[in-house]
């Protein structure tokens, strides 16, 4: 059963992210991670952290749209 709150990724995007994790650990920490370790890190990020980033994006979009709507009211003619 899938959790509806979990962010779903395409196979291609998941592979790209796993590759990015592997590259990061190699370049920044000098550690070579395998596919399994990188997959587990990605899964942790998705399950534990991603919803916070998603929710922040929703909030930022809401604030941006509200600011634009207020700008729209400024062009009213009296």
Automatic annotation (TrEMBL):
The protein, known as: DUF2164 domain-containing protein
